[in-house]
Amino acid sequence: MITTGFTFNSGHSESYGIVVDPTSRIILPEKRRILTDIPGRSGYHVQSDGTYLARQESFHCYYVKPDNMSLADSARRIALWLSGEGRLEFDNEPGKYYDAFVVGAPPQQRHLKYGEFDVTFCYSPPFAYTETQEQTAIITSNSGFILLPVNGTADTPCRIIIKNRGNRVIQNIRVTRSIQ
């Protein structure tokens, strides 16, 4: 399945003549576990804190040699773009991004007018982000509940700021969390 592309460090794969073929999209990152072998006992003692390891996904990329540049120069331009760390967004996941960097040294094959290489991105933390969302609500003595929806699939940290803009003491505020 060939995707339309990705944006990394503010550059889109299309502007480098790259077509992307994902080879290992992962549905769930690996859980962090410590396995302890206990003599005289079958299996392991498993210790886990519920967190996950970094996620790695590989993609096979093809690129076409631009008319005004050699294949080697095109590869160098791509290598410069992929070096470093940054925001990685896939065209087929609009509104989501990962903090990512390339792991390993992507091997390449060169042909007459095109090249190909495998690139592996590491995402740490291993989950996609969305843009920061902000919600403002005016609370009165009879406001009831205020719902702050999070549309993700992983535990998400949030910051709740309560400002008293009146002259009465704030009391009996309760913050609860529910997963649906």
Give short descriptive properties of this protein.
180 residues; 34% strand; mainly beta; two-stranded antiparallel ribbon; 8-stranded antiparallel β-sheet; 10 strands; flat
Topology at a glance:
Elements: E1 6-8, E2 11-12, E3 18-22, E4 31-37, E5 44-52, E6 55-64, H1 71-82, E7 85-90, E8 98-103, E9 108-110, E10 114-123
Radius of gyration: 23 Å
Helical/strand content category: mainly beta
The CATH topology label of the domain at 6-36 and 43-123 is: Elongation Factor Tu (Ef-tu), domain 3
CATH class of the domain at 6-36 and 43-123: Mainly Beta
Overall pLDDT: 84
Largest sheet: 8 strands, antiparallel
Percent of residues in helices comes to under 10%
- The termini sit apart by 33 Å
Helix run count: 1
Description:
The protein is mainly β. The protein has a domain at 6-36 and 43-123: Elongation Factor Tu (Ef-tu), domain 3 (Beta Barrel), CATH 2.40.30.200. The protein is built from 1 helix and 10 strands. It has one helix at residues 71-82; strands at 6-8, 11-12, 18-22, 31-37, 44-52, 55-64, 85-90, 98-103, 108-110, 114-123. The strands form 2 sheets. Strands 1, 2, 3, 6, 7, 8, 9 and 10 form an 8-stranded antiparallel sheet that branches. Strands 4-5 form a two-stranded antiparallel sheet. The two termini are 33 Å apart.
